Amino acid sequence: MPFKFHLSHLVRSTMILMAAFLVNKGLAIGRQVVVARAFGTGGDYDAFVAAFRLPDILFMLISGGALATAFIPILSERLTLRPANDPTGWRLTSSTLNTMLLVTAAAAALIAIVALPLVEWLIAPGFPPATQQLTANLMRLALISTLIFSVSGLAGGVLHVHQHFLLPALAPIIYNLGLITGAIFLAPSLGVYGLMWGAVAGAAGHLLIQIPGLVRYRIRYYPGLGWSDPGLRQVARLLGPRILTLGVIQVNFLVIFNLASRLGQGSVSALDYGWDLMQMPQTIIGSAIGIVLFPTMAELAARGDRASLRHTVEQSLRVILALSIPATVGLIVLGRPLIQLMFERGEFGPDSTAAVYQSLQFWALALVAHCALEVVNRLFYAQKDTTTPLVGAVIGMLVNVGLAVLLYRVLDAGGLALSNAVAVTIEVLVLLAIANRRMAGVEVRPLLSTLARTALAAGAMGAAILAFIALVPMLSPLVVAAAGGILGVLVYIVVGLLLGLEELRAVPRLIRR
């Protein structure tokens, strides 16, 4: 197939994912609003946040991102070769599912048994004893969600192989609806347990919405572990480096939240709210582009078309810079009114706003790097190199842990966010340097040109917003956020076009296409 076809498909699929992610992030804001109203940044919500740390790690290591990286290329190969014993790939899928559930269930049972000691010694040693007990109880419920997400994640991987992106993109929307339902209808009578049961219900919905897509591709289930299947053994071999990479990433967050628990009540919550706010543009920009780009990159790498691969990565990174840098500035200069508008009600007061805004300013500095990492890592994975991203992650972890220990007493939760921002930026730069040295992976000069123009335009945008806020300081948070946001976008576009920022001219063409 000609490359132009793939580019057109990439654009359409990315737009679909961006739209779905935008809706999901809107619901995530609604979720945070109702959760903040019910719990603020108090001890119960600290426990809820901390309770997900190990279940989330279990999901990511065994059945989440690691499995997707290993399983998708093997299933794609199976569907291409169509062997007589498994032409549709459902035997491989069933064997992978059964093995994954066996391992995940065993690990979940072990964590549930020793939940309280894990909380006391690893997750939140700074919590009061009552909050530690609550965290352990909530963790056992969160593990139910982990088991459900294990199945749902594999279902999404199968649909991605078939170039079906819509239902997996809608699944997080259902999960957020479950959390909102729990916060509104269950929390008043069950407290934070109601919120957790909403999470479990949302996880079930996350799986169920993808079932029609599997039915469309004539889903078949085969019992048994199928350990003699060479495809399953290939998946297992590919999992190793990717699991280690994700493990390193989770160590970063364990360290951050461990240190945050020592800063007093509300610090964990403030750090988590700030992370969630930064993740909104990160998901819409970085994740959407990365998810859709990966199959195209893998095919170009398999064909040995280095020139097209390099061009695709370069163009994607330039678009990411043009979108994520102004988003960073927007979060920094409009963060306070946004937090006031979304969260400041009920138990979430001005002190909570100040704490979350302090962490958000530093989390925002990590946005560009986190978006770029979505593409840079996949450049290596597309070429079946899972070791180099592991090296980059280890370097980032060492920087993150070292800086976190130095900064958390000086800048409180903001210091922990800043350590992550510096570490991920260094990780991306290291990986780009390796790509250029070994594979001529990315052309640097066009990236630097886009970076300079974008930084100047975003700087003008930030100055305009700050001037607007200074001139009308008494306006409500709604007016400041809305008017400041519109003004900022207009200034960024005008200055960017004057500076010759080609990515701004490309976006309308992509939408029309």
Write up this protein.
The longest helix is centred in the middle third of the chain and has 38 residues. The N terminus is likely disordered. The protein is globular. Helix 1 runs parallel beside helix 8 and helix 11 runs parallel beside helix 16. It starts with a helix and ends with a helix. By secondary structure, it is mainly α. The chain is built from 20 helices and no strands.
Write the layout of secondary structure elements.
Layout: H1 3-39, H2 43-51, H3 53-63, H4 65-81, H5 90-113, H6 115-123, H7 129-161, H8 166-190, H9 192-208, H10 211-216, H11 230-260, H12 267-303, H13 306-343, H14 350-364, H15 367-382, H16 387-411, H17 413-439, H18 444-471, H19 477-498, H20 502-512
Helix pairs in contact: 1-8, 1-12, 2-7, 2-12, 3-4, 3-5, 3-7, 3-11, 4-7, 4-11, 5-7, 6-7, 7-9, 8-9, 11-16, 11-17, 12-13, 12-14, 12-15, 12-17, 13-14, 13-15, 13-18, 13-19, 14-17, 15-17, 16-17, 18-19
**Assembly state:** single chain
Q: List unreliable stretches of 5+ residues.
A: 1-7
Helix content: over 70%
Largest sheet: none
| Beta-strand proportion | under 5%
End-to-end gap:
18 Å
By DSSP (H or I, 4+ residues per run), the number of helices equals 20
- Overall mean pLDDT stands at 86
Which of globular, elongated, flat, extended, rod-shaped describes the shape? Answer: globular
